[in-house]
Amino acid sequence: MKTLVVFYSLEGNTKFIAERIAKELKADLLELKTKKEFPSSGFKKYVWGGKSVVFKELPELTNQGVELDSYENIVIGTPIWAGTYAAPYNTFVKQYRFSGKKVALFACNLGGGVEKCFKMFKEALPDNEFIGEIDFVDPLKNDKEASAEKAVQWAKNLAL
Ligand SMILES: Cc1cc2nc3c(=O)[nH]c(=O)nc-3n(C[C@H](O)[C@H](O)[C@H](O)COP(=O)(O)O)c2cc1C
């Protein structure tokens, strides 16, 4: 059973967790990147990222022709933006077919919006079986290794 770990990360937290999960699962790793990069510091990052979520923008991805067909399982990781998934996922879920795959979700955040984020993924991917979800509070700043261990244990217990 092949597994793909997909992630988008503006400031490295989601990337850090995604890499640990992919290593544990011996999974392939796919980083979503946008053609026009979002600002990653200061107030600007909240303005541009927040706006893209609120207006349901479809930022263009540099990833082209991602081959999802060969994967039975997909682990999706996102930072929480304005109470839901980061805007690059608006594009990703529209552009690719996920139906029939098992999906596990993880999110990095500062303490708010995780439940809504997971609910919105489930609405956006109605033909999938969801097998797990977990969140991390800014792992790079809050006991990095404990967060990594939490991620690895979660990944180990996924029914893939
Ligand atoms: C545009 C934007 C909106 C955000 N909105 C939220 C939010 O609604 N709730 C929350 O807990 N954190 C929010 N955050 C914080 C990030 O989710 C958090 O710092 C996360 O760990 C960043 O992951 P990354 O380093 O992979 O980008 C927001 C960050 C940005 C840039």
Task: Describe the global form.
Answer: globular
Structural class based on helices, strands and sheet pairing: alpha/beta
- Oligomer state equals single chain
Uncertain residue segments? none
Kindly report the name of the CATH homologous superfamily. Flavodoxin domain
Count of distinct strands: 6
Question: Strand-and-helix sequence, N→C?
Answer: EHEHEEHEHEH
Radius of gyration: 15 Å
Mean pLDDT: 97
CATH architecture: 3-Layer(aba) Sandwich
User: Approximately what portion of the residues adopt beta-strand conformation?
Assistant: 15-25%
Number of domains: 1
Distance between the termini: 8 Å
Largest sheet: 6 strands, mixed
CATH class: Alpha Beta
The residue fraction in helices comes out at: 25-40%
Tally of contiguous helical segments = 5
Bound small molecules, by name, code or SMILES, are: flavin mononucleotide
CATH topology, by name, is Rossmann fold
Short summary:
With 160 residues, the chain is of the alpha/beta class. It has 5 helices and 6 strands. Helix 1 packs across helix 5.
Q: What does it look like?
A:
With 160 residues, the chain is an alpha/beta fold. It has one domain: 3-Layer(aba) Sandwich (Rossmann fold). Helices cover 36% and strands 23% of the residues. It has five helices and six strands, in the order E-H-E-H-E-E-H-E-H-E-H. Strands 1, 2, 3, 4, 5 and 6 form a six-stranded mixed β-sheet that branches. Strand 5, helix 4 and strand 6 form a beta-alpha-beta unit. Helix 1 crosses helix 5. The protein is globular and about 40 Å long. The relative contact order is 0.20. The mean pLDDT is 97. It binds flavin mononucleotide. The site of flavin mononucleotide has 23 residues, from helix 1, helix 2, strand 3 and strand 5.
